[in-house]
Write a structure and sequence with these properties.
alpha/beta, 332 residues, Dihydrodipicolinate Reductase, domain 2, 15 strands, Rossmann fold, 9-stranded mixed sheet, globular, 6-stranded parallel sheet, 2 domains, 27% strand, 10 helices
């Protein structure tokens, strides 16, 4: 079967560092072209990564008939525009998380891709690492689960702050929840296999950057089950989720960026800890191959509507943090 031909829409660092190598570590796709806002930038990116075609604009990339689908690693505020344009060009879309900040924008993306008959998937790469299948099996052995804690934080400094990185620009829909806290939200939804019905949240908004630098929330799921999530740019190194059941707990220490080595999962029962490992794996390769399989099958395990539900939680969390009230999560 012919390889899926990827176009890289933008020369974002994540594409260079993670997604392009991931496609090449997988089995189903090739990197056929890259598009940037200038030919020089596209050519430099293509030369560094041995990509055969460089386009001088995003529009030119989408017009390329030798492209089957695109990876969109643009700032959050640009996801809506370029997902819709890609759909209109007949290209399948793997869009970096989060799809959008509002349900209204996410719905426009989902509807545009459905109308065009192309696949849209939100790029939560961590979901494709086998450690989470191992964790799910272990969670089944700790009794009834009523509490989840999920966290993803890092310390932003240096050039990113000085140059006002897009992650800390409100006009580009930056913020701690949008950048990394969304992983914690997604993990809670994954673990419970359900959508939260209500959220309560708080945030610390930077006077200098006008975005949430630290964000924390409580998600209430059906049956009164709870998840506590946090994410942001002001503390170092936390990227875990922990699941507490009636007979034990499961902790995935490197839940979102485990690297390419084997991943370790801890199960605690009383004073006894057990450690389990999953195989080494490139989760970006898994993500890219999963997407191609979905295009060929016409069905996603994580359909675009899952991204719509994720966006509903994010929107509710921001509303709660702004108003100081508990907010019901919209049903989408």
């Amino acid at each position: 079967m012919a390889k899926f031909r990827w176009g890289i829409l933008s020369t974002a660092a994540i594409a260079k560092r993670a997604f392009v190598p991931g496609v090449r570590n997988g089995t189903e796709g090739i990197i056929a072209a890259v598009g940037s806002r200038s030919l020089a930038t596209a050519q430099a990116f293509a030369a560094d990564l041995d990509i055969p075609v460089a386009h001088a604009s995003y529009e030119a990339l989408l017009a390329d008939p030798q492209i089957d689908g695109v990876y969109i690693g643009l700032p959050n505020s640009m996801h809506l525009e370029w997902t819709i344009k890609a759909a209109e060009a007949g290209k399948h879309v793997l869009c970096e998380k989060p799809l959008a900040r509002t349900v209204a924008d996410a719905r426009k993306m989902v509807d545009a891709c459905a109308e065009a008959g192309v696949v849209l998937m939100e790029a939560f790469m961590y979901r494709h690492h086998p450690q989470h299948a191992v964790a799910r099996q272990l969670i089944e052995g700790i009794g009834d689960v009523a509490y989840v804690r999920a966290s993803f934080n890092y310390t932003m400094g240096g050039p990113r702050l000085e140059n006002r990185d897009h992650r800390i620009r409100p006009d580009m829909e930056g913020g701690g929840l949008m950048d990394v806290g969304c992983y914690a939200v997604n993990a809670a939804r994954f673990i419970y296999g359900a959508e939260p019905v209500e959220v309560t949240a708080m945030q610390r908004v930077s006077d200098a950057f006008e975005v949430d630098m630290s964000f924390a929330g409580v998600l209430r799921f059906p049956g009164g089950r709870l998840a506590v999530i946090d994410g942001g740019f002001e503390s170092t190194g936390a990227q875990f989720y922990e699941v507490a059941g009636t007979t034990g707990s499961v902790r995935v220490e490197k839940a979102y960026l485990p690297g390419l080595g084997a991943a370790t999962i801890r199960v605690s029962r009383g004073s006894v800890d057990e450690y389990h490992q999953s195989a080494a794996f490139d989760q970006y390769a898994g993500e890219a191959d999963h997407f191609v399989h979905a295009v060929r099958a016409g069905h996603l395990d994580l359909p675009a509507e899952n991204g719509l539900a994720q966006t509903a939680v994010i929107e509710a969390l921001y509303e709660s943090a702004s108003t100081g009230r508990a907010v019901a999560v919209a049903k989408v």
